[in-house]
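thread: overnight batch results

M.L. [08:02]
morning all. the overnight job finished for the chain we discussed friday. pasting input first so we're all looking at the same thing
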Amino acid sequence: MPGKLIRRVLPIRKGFRSSEAASFVAQLDDLTRRLFEDMKGATSAELAWQPKRGHNTMGMLLVHLALVEAYWVHFAEHGDYALEKLDRILGIGGDDDGIPLPEQGRPPAKLRGRTLTYYRTLLKRARASVTSGCKKFSPAGLNRQHVRVRKDGTRVEMDVRWILYHVVEHFSGHYGQLLLMRHQYRDRRR
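M.L. [08:03]
and the structure it wrote out:
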């Protein structure tokens, strides 16, 4: 008797000029679906829990994920990196995640009492912006170069393809951090 079949398929949406950009959005969509399955049942108290003063909360990280993907894809599309555009895209400002906190810092007050639904809605808004931007990228457009100047004056040159990769890389890293924090939250009183 054959064993159970588990099928893994990454659904690619239509309407993109570049199949590579469509794949990028599909990867983010799948990671987000899996993240919220793993976050199921997280309470407002859990999302606001701070392991230690100066450390991120799960809510802060979820806001950070939305800000970063909206920011970077906007940068990839337009070549500017003005943080004030995030308020128009997401309804929150570029610093509203509170990251990085000062050494003894507390989470932003505006995140107090927020539910998982709030964070899911925020990520949906970010993803709508990301999807809209990615639909415009042509295959050749993924090679377009942008230069970002850091605060210390260092110039970083990157192509659109690398920016899209970086958004998936960034999301994945914080996804792992969120899972670890859920374990820490559950084990905090043992």
